[in-house]
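Incident log, structure service

09:12 report received: a user says their structure output differs between two submissions of the same chain.
09:20 pulled the input from the user's history:
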Amino acid sequence: MIEIVISMFLLALLAIAFLPLLVQGVQQSSANATLAAATQLVNDEMELARSRTTCSSLTATSYSVPDPRGVTLQVARVVGGSCPTPTVPPAAPVYPITVPVTVTVTRSDTGVVVSSASTLIFVALS
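09:34 re-ran on a clean worker, output below:
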């Protein structure tokens, strides 16, 4: 009987020793899920921006979306500069041009930037 109690005590000590590792694994898994959702949102916004072929259709946007775990993510697309107007006779800038676009995903509860990307989008005169 004493041997069984001692073996159960040793098993309990081992379980308690592995408990912090289990908790850390669960926390890391949830952080990775949020990072994956934010990265997918950045990719989706970049593809949407690339689908805009004219300067006037490429606009800044901002919206909130919950990730699969329920964390609210704030998505912001910023378009750098403005659409230049063509002049006659043609002078700089001449279309087609590139417009800088930055997409940032931020956690609404902490304000931490989870994912961000910048690129140049090739656009034509609208």
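09:41 both user submissions now match this output. Likely a transient worker issue. Closing.
09:42 reviewer note: Residues 88 and 104 are 37 Å apart (CA to CA). The chain has a mean pLDDT of 87.
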